[in-house]
Automatic annotation (TrEMBL):
Keywords: Methyltransferase, Transferase. One of its GO terms (cellular component) is cytoplasm. The gene is Alkbh8. The lineage of its organism: Eukaryota, Metazoa, Chordata, Craniata, Vertebrata. This is ALKB8 protein. InterPro entries: AlkB_tRNA_MeTrf/Diox, Methyltransf_11, SAM-dependent_MTases_sf. It comes from Helopsaltes ochotensis. It comes from the Eukaryota.
Length: 239
């Protein structure tokens, strides 16, 4: 059984004849102790406070029967680990010939979770204020003015808390929606229409951070922890 916050993604599961429903990771409407195993992939790094990240893991543990296991993946601050670059960084070279895109506004409409826009190079600062931001040690500097940096895709992370541009592809604009434009290479004055760009919040985890959060719960134990292609991962067992 699958669940997701996005109705669009859940609808896709239904079209493929899988069982899935819409819910929040902080409150999953499934009976306690009823699951043999749970998987949380690329979810917990979207919660903006340490308390909420802990609460999602506690909720995951609640669903497990005694002896049940959970697999958790979160995005790592360390995209280059043991002298090896992650797939995320390596893929930058494959997109070097694409045009750089500037987003001059965002159209407000649903976004399907397709993955970061590989070509967005917006390194400006967001005006969105980050509340309850704590200085979590990872060799990073505190965020200036308590504002979130907008990450340049396919580059190393310089902050644990950031916004990442996501490009909505394949949609059609309504006449009243704003249109993003970009100057074409070679000094051409011709403008082309771009799909809207959205900014999604991420908290990327430092080495040891995910394990420390899990160890603060007395209802689980860590069976295994490891690094996998730019992600920190743990396998938990319900006690």
């Amino acid at each position: 059984i699958g669940c997701d916050r996005s109705k669009n993604l859940v609808d896709i599961c239904g079209e493929k004849h899988f069982q899935a429903f819409v819910c929040d990771a902080l409150s999953v409407p499934i009976r306690s102790g009823s699951c043999d195993a749970c998987i949380s992939i690329a979810v917990i790094h979207h919660f903006s406070t340490a308390e909420r990240r802990l609460a999602t893991i506690r909720e995951l543990a609640r669903l497990l029967r005694p002896g049940g296991t959970a697999l958790i993946y979160v995005w790592a601050m360390e995209q280059e680990y043991k002298n090896q670059k992650s797939k995320y960084l390596k893929e930058k070279n494959g997109n070097k010939n694409k045009d750089k895109e500037m987003n001059t506004g965002t159209a407000q409409r649903p976004l399907s979770d397709q993955g970061p826009d590989n070509t967005s190079q917006d390194s400006a600062w967001s005006d969105q204020l980050l509340k309850d931001l704590k200085d979590e040690s990872c060799g990073t500097k505190p965020i200036a003015d308590f504002r979130l940096p907008v990450h340049t895709n396919r580059t190393s992370f310089h902050s644990q808390d950031l916004l990442i541009p996501w490009h909505l592809k394949g949609g059609t604009k309504k006449k009243e929606e704003s249109v993003d434009t970009v100057l074409l290479p070679g000094g051409s004055k011709e403008l082309q229409e771009l799909s809207p760009v959205f900014h999604r919040y991420y908290h990327v985890f430092c080495e040891g951070e995910l394990e420390a959060v899990c160890r603060s719960l007395d209802c689980v134990r860590i069976q295994k922890s490891y690094y996998d292609q730019g992600n920190w991962c743990v396998i938990l067992e319900k006690l």
